[in-house]
Specification:
The chain is α+β, with helices and mostly antiparallel strands and 87 residues long. The chain contains two helices and five strands. It has a five-stranded mixed beta sheet with strand order 2-1-5-3-4. Strand 3 and strand 4 form a beta hairpin. The longest helix has 16 residues. The N and C termini lie far apart (28 Å).
Length: 87
């Protein structure tokens, strides 16, 4: 792991699961959402997960707010151990 990566716990109520990711904190939230949803879909072996017109958002437990898809974790100042939820 380098200075540009963080570990994040991603909670997904749609799958009733919690997942650990090592991610580049310079990626936009919208890019992270694509990674998270695709990896969770693969892990759960559920092609229907996140497949509808529903547009999931990423919520940060520490900041207590939904994250702007155009910003990065770095811009929010989030570091290792951050807890995120797909809502």
């Amino acid at each position: 792991m380098n200075e540009n990566t963080v570990t994040a716990e991603v909670i997904c109520p749609a799958s009733s699961g919690t997942y650990d990711f090592i991610i580049d904190c310079r990626l936009k939230i919208s890019e992270l959402m694509k990674i998270f949803t695709e990896q969770i879909r693969i892990y759960e072996k559920n092609k229907l997960l996140f497949s509808g017109k529903y547009n999931p958002r990423l919520y940060c437990s520490e900041l207590r707010l939904p994250l702007n898809p155009e910003m990065t974790l770095d811009e929010y100042g989030l570091r290792n151990g951050c807890r995120l939820m797909i809502i």
